[in-house]
Amino acid sequence: MKRFTYILIAAIIPFGVKATENPMFGNGHQNAISINIGQGTGPGSLFKLINPGEWDIVPQTMILAGYSQPMTLFRLPARQNFNIVQNFGYNSSRGLSFLGVGISWDAAVFSWRGFYVGGGLGPYMRDSHDRYVSSRLVFGEKFFIGKNISDNWRAEFFTMHFSNGDFTEINRGFNFTGLTVNYSF
Does domain 2-184 have CATH number 2.40.160.20? Predict the structure, then answer.
């Protein structure tokens, strides 16, 4: 499965989008706000993001609100984001709730007829540490598939992973999958 994933990524990257077009924003729009709602898919490594066969639905829900501005990243259309994230752990995941703030950068590596595919990365500071990750500093990695609904509205399916990059001994990570609604203006 890992070999298939690497081949898929290598096949998509050469078909990147033009830097003059940013599929994550409407024509001439310089701002966007978004709401991401995700369901926990269990602790685990970053590779769990792109392998749905390893997903475990766990009693955690994530809500992330973001503000974005367009940019380019290595000539790819991109966005820089300021995010506030709240994870709610309930039932057996009690004690895994956290509130965090962070910045991230997302780039679209492929765009075609209103659809786009990309990924992102950024640091986040949490208000607590827990039995999954024993540090307040975590990194968020994200993969997404988006669709332009209109000039102002976009919808995205995403998978997201929070962990500390093995800076501490306890680093099981948090994984989520969900939907994003984005309004650009």
Answer: yes
